[in-house]
């Protein structure tokens, strides 16, 4: 019983520490996130530079969707690598012969990935939101949404990474596999943020998002564990 | 332990009966269905003759969903009982299934142009169908994405099951998103409102498509089985040198 | 403990369409070594991975210390698997990697025990160096150091895939001493090697490839010799 808790916890710290030693892993997503958001206003053209109200308004309108897509795109390429290093180094096979059950170990890895990948994004998100014309208070309030949605993306990404482990051309597969699975998260997340900004009833949206993340929280560790079993045969 | 030889043999024996039967049903239903759809059914009072697209569009959409469910069922058989034939079946159904999804989308676009005035509208059903097509593509890519085909089969089967769990969630989220972002201006066919003269060709066409799907799937399974035998023979020969 | 360290009954194993071994019966008692022999690609690694439950077996049964593999939690505590790959985190120090591997196997060890194990394997000076900066031989020693830490767990069956490769003369001697002391404490080991090992083997299992068209399914034949 004790091993059930201590081994996954130890794995969690191992992964976080490993990422901390090599910060490029940890900050890569955040840098990508910042760049994507910076490029949108530039792409919208001269209207913004001239300070025209219409372009400003348009930017504000698409800001929640932009932020959510950017969070998703910043998370997923990093998740692609989640099991790759472990598989080639042999850590994955040692995990599989650990007394702790594999789904729990997967959960620990996913939790560590959340800390490493999502937390930096959540920290930068308010700043970028404000730059897109959203109010400071709204952005601070929506960090919780990003943290929750980010967990969803990490869960989906872990499943896809486990399923495609060892495939030729992993990156393309990941995109095709992830899109249908990540789409509900994007819809619920962006609309929750829309509601938050519009000052409407947010609770229902948040509950939908939470419910979805909970389903994934059960599904993803199981599916990942089974898929890794297939991959390592 | 599964007998790798006996089951495919039995499968060939059973399908030798089913295949001509399904083919006959397909030909008959298709002929009758086309006659009904083009000659024996009235044009819609609003949509005119373009309503006839429905007789392909709607059964294709049904088949796209049915094929996915059939594949997911096969995946369960493959993953739980390790039956290789179930995997061959799922792989065989993927291509016609994806084809049905594609036909649904294309006919939807043709239908949408005169009715909505645009080739593509972000309607909940069309969007769901697009996502279903992505699920098909993901399955096919994953199944063929590995050096060892068995690995691809297992991963892809698992993806099918995840997809089946996600399908209602996707459907729900898209419907929900649609009601948020679009008004009720979208013209839709209501199941209850449909006239019997239109329902009859619709069902006959559905039977024709089901028969065609069964034929294609069985033929593709035969091809896959033959291919496996060739590979096995080549591998055996290769051992000698 | 009355149960044999390893008991195999009527085991058949295949990889894709190829039968690696068929109807194998074997038994390994405390203090014994089973040596796996065979050409490259014959199936030595698959057999070891099969015993560690990393690869599914076709049919038959086996147990380690009387415990069947389906009892996951208990079974995984009955052996140590030393594979080709060292399972070291690239950005971690030697001692951190060792601590991780030991903990993953469900064994508690304090820093002194870990340091001592590194010292035994001749890595005392490398404890805080990043593992990716160690040489291939040093990495292997580091992977083997967990055997020292788990030395107290004599009941564990050591499953070792080519453990002597990439080790220098001193490393081979250290490993030999390690295995011998494990055997003296009542342990047992299954070791694969394609050249001779500096250990007396109690049993040798040879995978011999036979190139015969008519007997294709039995092309890989296992022979058990006492």
How would you explain this protein's 3D organization?
The complex is a heterotrimer of chains A (233), B (241) and C (226). With 233 residues, chain A is mostly helical. Chain A has one domain. Chain A has 10 helices and no strands. The longest helix of chain A has 30 residues. Chain A is elongated. Chain B has one domain. In chain B, 80% of the residues lie in helices and 0% in strands. The two termini of chain B are 30 Å apart. The longest helix of chain C is centred in the last third of the chain and has 16 residues. Chain C has 226 residues and is α/β, with parallel strands linked by helices.
Question: What does this entry show, briefly?
Answer:
The complex is a heterotrimer of chains A (233), B (241) and C (226). Chain A is mostly helical and 233 residues long.
Beta-strand content bin of chain A: under 5%
Which residues of chain B form runs of ≥5 with pLDDT under 50?
1-6, 182-192
Write down the domain tally of chain B: 1
Decide which structural class fits the backbone of chain B: mainly alpha
User: How confident overall, as mean pLDDT of chain A?
Assistant: 86
Range of strand content of chain B:
under 5%
Helix content of chain B: over 70%
Please identify the oligomeric state: heterotrimer
Number of helices, where a helix is a run of at least 4 consecutive DSSP H or I residues of chain A: 10
- The tally of helices of chain B reads 6
Any low-confidence stretches of chain A, pLDDT <50, length ≥5? none
Helix content of chain A: over 70%
Q: Give the integer mean of the pLDDT values of chain B.
A: 83
Describe the largest sheet of chain A.
none
Gross geometry of chain A: elongated
List the chains of the largest interface with their residue counts. Answer: A-B, 29 and 29 residues
Number of domains of chain A: 1
Quantity of strands of chain B, as a count: 0
Rg from Cα of chain B = 21 Å
Encode the helix/strand succession of chain B as letters: HHHHHH
Tell me the major beta sheet of chain B. Answer: none
């Amino acid at each position: 019983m004790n091993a059930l808790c201590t081994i996954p916890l130890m794995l969690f710290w191992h992964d976080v520490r490993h990422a901390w030693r090599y910060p490029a892993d940890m900050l890569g997503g955040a840098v990508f996130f910042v760049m994507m958001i910076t490029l949108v206003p530039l792409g919208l053209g001269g209207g913004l530079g001239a300070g025209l109200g219409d372009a400003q308004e348009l930017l504000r309108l698409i800001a929640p969707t932009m932020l959510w897509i950017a969070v998703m795109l910043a998370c997923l390429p990093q998740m692609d690598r989640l099991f790759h290093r472990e598989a080639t180094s042999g850590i994955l096979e040692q995990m599989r012969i650990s007394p702790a059950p594999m789904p729990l170990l997967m959960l620990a890895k996913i939790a560590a990935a959340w800390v490493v990948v999502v937390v930096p994004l959540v920290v930068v998100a308010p700043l970028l939101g404000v730059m897109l014309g959203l109010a400071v208070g709204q952005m601070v309030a929506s960090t919780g949404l990003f943290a929750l949605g980010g967990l969803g993306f990490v869960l989906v990404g872990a499943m896809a990474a486990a399923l495609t482990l060892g495939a030729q051309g992993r990156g393309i597969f990941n995109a095709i596999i992830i899109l249908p699975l990540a789409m509900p998260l994007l819809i619920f997340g962006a609309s929750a943020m829309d509601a938050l900004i519009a000052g409407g009833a947010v609770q229902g949206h948040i509950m939908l998002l939470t419910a979805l993340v909970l389903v994934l929280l059960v599904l993803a560790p199981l599916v990942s564990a089974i898929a890794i079993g297939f991959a390592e045969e | 332990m599964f007998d790798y030889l006996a089951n495919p043999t039995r499968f060939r024996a059973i399908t030798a009966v089913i295949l001509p039967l399904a083919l006959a049903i397909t030909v008959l239903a298709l002929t009758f269905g086309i006659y009904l759809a083009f000659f024996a059914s009235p044009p819609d009072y609003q949509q005119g003759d373009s309503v006839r697209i429905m007789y392909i569009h709607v059964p294709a959409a049904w088949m796209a969903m049915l094929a996915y469910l059939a594949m997911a069922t096969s995946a369960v058989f493959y993953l739980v009982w390790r039956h290789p034939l179930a995997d061959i079946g799922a792989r065989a159904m993927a291509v016609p299934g994806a084809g049905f999804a594609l036909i649904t989308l294309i006919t939807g676009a043709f239908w949408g142009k005169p009715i909505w005035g645009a080739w593509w509208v972000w309607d909940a059903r069309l969007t769901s169908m697009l996502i279903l097509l992505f699920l098909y593509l993901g399955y096919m890519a994953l199944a063929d994405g590995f050096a060892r085909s068995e690995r691809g089969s297992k991963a892809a089967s698992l993806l099918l099951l995840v997809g089946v769990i996600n399908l209602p969630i996707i459907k729900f989220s898209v419907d929900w998103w649609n009601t948020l972002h679009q008004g009720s201006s979208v013209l839709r066919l209501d199941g209850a409102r449909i006239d019997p003269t239109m329902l009859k060709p619709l069902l006959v066409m559905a039977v024709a498509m089901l028969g065609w799907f069964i034929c294609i799937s069985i033929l593709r399974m035969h091809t896959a089985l033959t291919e496996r035998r060739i590979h096995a023979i080549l591998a055996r020969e290769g051992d000698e040198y | 403990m009355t149960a044999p360290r390893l008991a195999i009954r009527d085991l058949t194993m295949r990889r894709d369409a190829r039968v690696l071994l068929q109807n194998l019966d074997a038994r390994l008692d405390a203090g014994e070594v089973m040596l796996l022999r065979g050409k490259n690609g014959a199936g030595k690694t698959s057999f070891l991975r099969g015993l560690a439950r990393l690869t599914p077996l076709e049919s038959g049964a086996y147990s380690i210390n009387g415990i069947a593999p389906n009892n996951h939690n208990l079974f995984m505590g009955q052996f140590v698997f030393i594979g080709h790959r060292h399972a070291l985190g690239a950005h971690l120090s030697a001692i951190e990697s060792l601590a991780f591997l030991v903990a993953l196997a469900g064994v508690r060890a304090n820093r002194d025990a870990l340091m001592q194990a590194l010292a035994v394997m001749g890595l005392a000076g490398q404890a805080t160096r990043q593992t990716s900066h160690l040489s291939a031989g040093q990495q292997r020693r580091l992977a083997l150091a967990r055997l020292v830490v788990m030395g107290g767990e004599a009941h564990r069956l050591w499953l070792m895939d080519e453990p002597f490769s990439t080790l220098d003369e001193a490393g081979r001697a250290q490993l030999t001493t390690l295995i011998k002391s494990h055997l003296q404490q009542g342990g047992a080991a299954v070791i694969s090697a394609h050249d001779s090992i500096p250990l007396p083997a109690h049993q040798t299992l040879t995978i011999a490839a036979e190139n015969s068209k008519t007997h294709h399914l039995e092309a890989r034949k296992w022979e058990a010799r006492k």
